[in-house]
Amino acid sequence: MFTKKFWVLFGLFIMPLAFYIFLLTGTNNFAKLPVLTETIKDVKAFKTKDLQTVSLNGKITILCFLGDDLQSVKNNALNLNEKIYKHFYKFRDFQFVVVLPEGTQQQAVQLTKELGAITDMRKWKFVFGSLKNINEVFDSLETTYPLNANGYSPYAFIIDKDRHLRGRADKEGIEDGVYYGYNAETVAPIHNEMVDDVKVLVAEYRLALKKNKNKREI
């Protein structure tokens, strides 16, 4: 018959150790964000205000489609800036890409000034192109969400370094359980879900870098 002392020791040492081993064996389940769509279309056909090219390759990208009236959807950018960008922009391979219709360059300059008052904007990338090209990129995400006639969607998308769309495949309360993007019009989806999902993806790449470094040292 076990003594009281045994159960105290069991609770203090054995249970935590067993839980730690459980976490180690379950690393693959906890550490990866599902791939929902493979190899979406790149944005190389678009140009920045200074006619530079931006690519999704090799970067963790938050991809947004803000349409032709940036003032009316400014809160989307503010929400994402506060909850996501400020927390992750120091990660080397991280960027925000905002896809906009041609002719909105000055609106983007104004939004950049407003965000720049409180933020280091170097990893915000505003790119401009035709509505045809915008629709092609959006369609390549293969989501169930619509893009309106002005090139606007309220959703922000997490794209990995291989241009794969990442998200949730088992989200409760939605059709098929697939959660392609995060509605940036309100803070709740960003704060409650997107922050955690970006953390998971960043941790996935950090773990891969650590494993590669260890292999090189062997």
Secondary-structure topology with pairs:
Elements: H1 4-25, H2 27-30, E1 35-37, E2 60-66, H3 74-88, E3 94-101, H4 105-116, E4 124-129, H5 131-140, E5 152-159, E6 165-166, E7 182-183, H6 187-217
Parallel strand pairs: 2-3, 3-4
Antiparallel strand pairs: 1-6, 2-5, 5-6, 5-7
Task: Describe this entry's structure for a reader.
With 218 residues, the chain is of the alpha/beta class. It has one domain (29-217): Glutaredoxin (3-Layer(aba) Sandwich), CATH 3.40.30. Helix content is 43%, strand content 17%. The chain is built from six helices and seven strands. It has helices at residues 4-25, 27-30, 74-88, 105-116, 131-140, 187-217; strands at residues 35-37, 60-66, 94-101, 124-129, 152-159, 165-166, 182-183. Strands 1, 2, 3, 4, 5, 6 and 7 form a seven-stranded mixed β-sheet that branches. A hairpin with a 5-residue loop joins strand 5 (152-159) and strand 6 (165-166). It is globular. It starts with a helix and ends with a helix.
Question: Which of globular, elongated, flat, extended, rod-shaped describes the shape?
Answer: globular
Q: Which structural class fits the helix and strand makeup?
A: alpha/beta
Give the name of the CATH architecture.
3-Layer(aba) Sandwich
CATH superfamily: Glutaredoxin
* Mean pLDDT across every amino acid position: 87
Rg result:
21 Å
Helix/strand order: HHEEHEHEHEEEH
Beta-strand content: 15-25%
**Unreliable segments of 5+ consecutive residues:** 16-30
| Annotated CATH topology | Glutaredoxin
